[in-house]
Amino acid sequence: MGAKERSTEAISRDDARFCAPAPPLLVILPGDPPEPCPELLTQAEAIRYLRLDVDGPERPDLTLRRYRELGMLRAVRVGRRIRYRRVDLDEFLAKKSREAPDSA
After folding, report:
1. 20 phi/psi in degrees, rounded to 5
2. Domain segments of the chain: what residues?
3. Given a cut of 60, is residue 10 above it in pLDDT?
4. For the chain, first and last CA: distance in Å?
5. Which residues fall within 8 angstroms of residue 31, CB to CB, at 6 or more apart?
6. In sequence order, what DSSP letters do the residues of 18-81 get, joined into one string?
7. pTM over 0.85
8. Residue bearing the bigger pLDDT, 81 or 25
9. Are 42 and 51 within 8 A, CB to CB?
10. CB count in 10 Å sphere of residue 63
């Protein structure tokens, strides 16, 4: 094996190290006790994640349903249950943050 082949092989191995996916961040659901947040959340977990249970609407379950029906929030049906992808909840929050007037 020549020097050129060895240097190319070393670069390829180093490139693979930089291309490796980053480990997922650990997201914690608020509450007592705090819990790791799954990628697919139940209605109760989505309510906690969006903090609708703290100084929020009287019926946060109906609020989630309204967001779904208006097309503001996507949900996934798994069997008979409705689940919310954490990515969709994050996108929803980002969109709501962009829509909110500046509080300056």
Report:
1. -65, 140
2. 27-99
3. no
4. 66
5. 48
6. HHSPPPPPPPEE-SSS-EEPPSEE-HHHHHHHTTTTSS--S-HHHHHHHHHHTTSS--EEETTE
7. no
8. 81
9. no
10. 16
SS3 82: strand
AA letter at 69: E
Containing H/E element for 7?
helix 3-19
Confidence category of residue 27, pLDDT binned at 50, 70, 90: confident
Q: What is the mean pLDDT of the chain?
A: 78
At residue 84, the pLDDT reads: 94
Amino acid at 58: E
Q: What is the pLDDT of residue 15?
A: 54
Greater model confidence, 21 or 59: 59
Give the distance, in angstroms, between the CA of residue 19 and the centroid of all CA atoms in the same chain. Answer: 22
Dihedral (CA of 71, 72, 77, 81) sign: negative
